[in-house]
Structure formats: structure tokens, C-alpha cells
Task: structure prediction
Amino acid sequence: MIGRIKTQTVEASQFLVDWMEHRTGIVTMLEHFLYEPVPKRGAWLYTLGSAVLFTITLQFLTGILLLFYYAPTTDDAWNSVEYIMTDAYFGQLIRGIHYWSANFLMAFIGLHMGQVFFSGGYKSPRELNWIVGVILLLLVVGLSFTGYLLRWDQDGFWASVVGMKIGSYSPFVGGYVIHFLLGGDVVGPATLSRFFAIHVWLLPAMIAPLIGAHLFLLRRHGVFGSEFEYTDRIAKLHERQRLEEYARYEADEDEGEPYVGRRDRADREGYERDGE
Ligand code: HEM
Result:
């Protein structure tokens, strides 16, 4: 009985998948999107970029849910956070995920960047992807900074005051940028509104297309060091070595060595090596 139900469920889901594939091609598209060859050596390290992608997606999702209750005004911000933590359904869980995943996001980005650096993944033709990555890193740091003030408690308030004080000492533009962020001379209602707008609208709107560009460039060049990248290079290297070997034998021939027999042997050896 249970066996029959199991078989019928499998058949029904297979039918559904085939039906969708036939009409939309979505299964092939997903396969193409999800599978990326990576070098065999240290393959786990290549999951770090996906870990960053996963945590930032969690941030977007839990952030949207928090917006159902969060009120970005100096009178209500802290109270609304308190409400989320004590009364709202799953509020504590959702805020907890938003908080911890923000921390993990920063750690994963650092590790991902380190992995790309030490594997040489930033070299030509992937420089532009590195630059996109650096911009993403700065924007994510911006997310952390602006998010901290939103809870409007003593921690977030003073951390923002100190952060902005440090930023105001940046040469030339520091003072102007901080004055704009504050919306006045001190942290107040205008600051909270601006941080909210930047945290919830501006930065996510910049980050989402940049992640798209990052993944597009990744797909364009493949992961650095994958086998398929080397197949082509190794074939070229063998060809060059073969030509160099010929050139050496022809030089020998000028010195009066027998020509035909040696060239034949070189040909045969080259053939055997290629066929390995
Ligand atoms: C929101 C932030 C980011 C996301 C979602 C993200 C996502 C990814 C993913 C999924 C990969 C492919 C798998 C892998 O190699 O781990 C990747 C590769 C890459 N990432 Fe990122 N990344 C981010 C930030 C960064 C940063 C901060 C840098 C460097 C400054 C960077 C530079 C690169 C480069 C150069 C590659 C290609 C590596 C290769 O071909 O071996 N990324 N990224």
C-alpha cells in the first residue's frame, strides 16, 4: 500500500516536472543556472560565494518581513522593535535570523574575497568581477552601518555617532557626506529617516543588479581553474612544445645529422604523447 502511494507520488511529480519543462524549459534553465564546474582541489572553498548569496537573500527576505511591523520614527522605532521581539508572531525568530545572517554575511564575504585572492581568481579576464565584488563589499558594509541605527537603542545610537565622527575626518568630502547623512548637525529624526531610506531602498536597489552582474561575469568566464579552462590551454601548450621540438630537430639537421629518421621518430613520440 505504502509502496504504491510512493510510486504514484513519484510518477505524479515526474509528470508535473515534465509538463513544466515541456512548456517553459525551466528545468533545463535551472540546471544551467545551478551547475558550475569548479576545480577539484579545494572544491568546498568555492561554496563561499554561494554562502554569501544565500545569506544576503535571507537578509532581503527577513528584512521585508520586519518591515511589516517596524516604524522608522524616533518615537516608535524602539517600541516597534520591542513589539517584534515580544508580541509579533515569529518576530523574535525573524529578527534573530536577520541579525545573525548579517554577521555571517560579513564573515562569508571576507572568506570569499580571501579565497578569490589566494586562488588568483581576480586575474585577467576576471578583473572586472573583482571590481564589482569590491563595490558589493562596500555596499554591504553600508547596509550594516545603516541597519545598526534603525533599532534606535543606546548601542545603535552611539555606534552610529562614533562611526560618523570617524567618517567626518575623511579628507575633502568627509564633512559634507556626514552632514548629508545626519540631515543636520546631530543624530536625530532626519538621520533615522535617511538611514532607513538608504538601508531599505537605496542600498538593496544597488546591490541586487550588481549581484546579477557578478553572476553574469562569473558565468561568462567560468570559475578560475576549472578543468574546461585548462583543456584549451593544455592543447595549446602541447602544440607549442611540438613545434619547438620540430624546430630543435631541424637545427640538428643543419649540423649534418640524418634528417628523415629523426623527424619520423619525433613525429611518432609526439603522437604517442598526445594519445596518452
Ligand atoms: C554580495 C556579495 C557577493 C556575492 C553574492 C558573491 C557571489 C559569488 C559567487 C556565487 C561566486 C561563484 C562561486 C565562488 O567562486 O565562490 C563568486 C565568484 C567571484 N567573486 Fe564574488 N560574491 C560577492 C562578493 C565578492 C567580493 C567582495 C569580491 C572581491 C572583492 C568578489 C569577487 C569574486 C570573483 C573575482 C569571483 C570569480 C572567482 C573565480 O572565477 O574563481 N565577490 N562570487
Notes: The pocket of protoporphyrin IX containing FE is lined by residues 46, 48-50, 52-53, 56, 109, 112-113, 116, 119, 121-122, 126, 129-130, 133-134, 136-137, 140, 211, 214, 218, 223-224 (CB under 6 Å). The first helix runs from residue 2 to 24. Residues 222 and 229 are 8 Å apart (CA to CA). The chain has two domains: 42-225, 230-274.
